[in-house]
Amino acid sequence: MEAFSLFPEMGLLNDNHNGFYRRVSSLSIRERRDMKERKVITAKETTGFDFGGLAVQWKIEGGDTGNRFAVVHHPMQPHALAAPLHYHHNEDEISYVLQGRLGALLGDDVIFAEAGAWVFKPRRQWHTFWNAGETTCEIIEIISPAGFENYFREVAASWGDVQKFAEINRKYSLEMDFESIPGLCDRFGLTFPQL
Predict the structure, then answer these.
(1) pTM over 0.90
(2) Is 88 a member of any domain?
(3) Rounded (to 5) percent helix, strand, coil in the chain
(4) Do residues 95 and 119 make contact, with C-beta atoms less than 8 angstroms apart?
(5) What letter would DSSP give residue 183?
(6) DSSP per residue over 126-175, as a string?
(7) Which range marks the domain in which residue 95 is found?
(8) What's the pLDDT tens digit per position in 111-131?
(9) Which helix (H) or strand (E) holds 184?
(10) Is 119 a member of any domain?
């Protein structure tokens, strides 16, 4: 998908394994591997997008798992709110904290999870999450069933287009409460980027 050359301001990234990022011209990772043949995905094979505070790096695609699950990696900047309160109609999300401190609002419950902890965010529950620490927080997100990993790809491809963003949310049966952002930021001392 070469359309990204038209949007140089987009933070399309490729992890070069040293913690630094460089721009890449494609969001497609289908060309890089066939999971039926490969068992290891190296850091150099990762493509991603930085949404400003939250980044996504695609690791395992639904097409590689019979659409049973997908895996993404989310690095988050300190005190970054990942998303407004939101509600998935179709997907469960399971987060494994690699490093840092993850905060989450699951329904009415506020939880904090340190490196090595798992957080289950079931479908049909209002929730959000954020970096609750002073350093980068990184989580591995398992999405089941697969498909929602493409949500991030489509939002990245239309970054800044609010109308397209609303269409993508409808397509993926995702509800977002944008009015929750100021209260979440005030309550937990967070920042959130503009679309």
Answers:
(1) no
(2) yes
(3) 20, 40, 40
(4) yes
(5) H
(6) -EEEEE-SSS-EEEEEEEESTTTHHHHHHHHHTTT-HHHHHHHHHHTTEE
(7) 52-188
(8) 999 999 999 999 999 999 999
(9) helix 180-188
(10) yes
